[in-house]
Amino acid sequence: MAVPDSLLAHCFRNLSDGLFVLDGNYRLVAANSVLAAWLGLEQTDFAQPKARPRLDALLDCSCPLDSAGEHRFECSLPRTGGSGRLEISLMPVELDGQIYFTGIARDISDHRRRIEQLEHQARHDGLTGLGNRSAFEDRLRRLHEDARANGHTHALLYLDLDHFKVVNDTHGHPVGDRLLCEIAGLLLARVRDRDLVARLGGDEFGILLEHCTMHDAEALGQTLVQAIDCHRFVWNGHSFRVSASIGLTTITRERKSCEEVLSFADAACYVAKDNGRNGVQAYFGGVRCTGKRKELDWVNRLHAALEQNRFRLFYQRILPVAFRGEREYRELLLRLIDEDGQQVSPAEFLPVAERYDLMPAIDRWVLDRLRQSLASLPPSARRFKTHYAMNLSGASLSDSAFREQLIETVEHPAFEHIELCFEITESAAVRDMDRAVSLMERLRRTGCRIALDDFGQGMSSFAYLKHLPIDYLKIDGALVRQMHTDERDFRIVEAINQMAQHLGFRTVAEFVEQPAILERLAQLGVDFAQGFHLHRPEAWKG
Length: 542
What we know:
Structural class: alpha/beta
């Protein structure tokens, strides 16, 4: 059917846009050269079968066309492979008793890009490129809603740079700005893709960690503090150094509001600064961040617990994933019995013990308890060696008196009947690398084994790993816990396991809480597994 000249004149008036005409059956009967080029057609091809699918793709709108009023929608711009956008406007026109649709297709790609740029600017810090306070508050609100509705646990780190004002005031804002950008990159390199790092203003940063326990958040906090402390910022031949204080809290069902979560983390950060800066302070349980008085109360309670022998040992089995000749071993875990006879989790007292130099005394208690128990074993119980693992704190590694006592203890005849493995965290090992390596080598010469604990929190791990004389690599539970559903976590665990095998280390996966996790560990060839799915901690009877 011929299209009247008057209608063609109406369609082709604006040749900078794509102009076209559809008949009542939505068949393309006319179009200008702009639209033809977008469709990849010649103007003589409109009646050909190949024009139909290309037109259908262009007019992929959510509502059916009818003859009542204008239709306006957006679709992908064909010639850009889907990255560009078109705005389509269709107007029904009745002519000689027939319905036609006159269409205008306008390229709005640049407009959309400008909008996206403005939206990005509205949610990102202009200096560092991190999320800004608006983005941070939105994510905090969503995590708080999830915790209240589903019982999930998330975490917030509130980080404030120490002595940044000195750099800014002494050397000028351009130097301070450059330093902030480097710190931003350092933080981003050490969190997961699903976590949010935001600049909250000045030299303050907020880090939101999805599905993260207090233990894992504190380990990450220590990694960040150490990384910033080791970072050297160089400007015009001058080297600068800053540190960071971090306050952290969990986002749980019990938190009443986002404001409460933020205030807890802020208060914890204040205490971290009050304690000498360059550290991490958690807000939890019995340790409240209303000042040092509460913490000093805990210090007194820990001294009393040591004097009254109110610590208890528990153990958790660590089992071979697949039988290849390996034997299971057991990790010794510490619990505190309070004044009322209630069991207290180490998450409530160990941070205070570490800050107030009580960890060497607690580690000595564990060694003495182990030695006494082994010395009292009857001869019949000494025929087979038992494998045990115990943790050594960073403070104990730095205590020369403790190190000498440790070597003397493991050489005691009572320890001939067990094979002992000492677990040392990644952060403790690298805090004083030379001293840690020296102690590890001495322990191995006595027949002990060494495990590097919580591996995977610090992304600098691969650089120094080859220098550490270790036997086991314990893969951090934050990577293991969701590896059966998170492909990225699975691939990271796979890479760590492959690297460990090449270096001659055995691998141990922590936080194995689902059968599906164990299946994937077996698929990767991980050596050992530990977690509630395999064994829940129970009292050690020695």
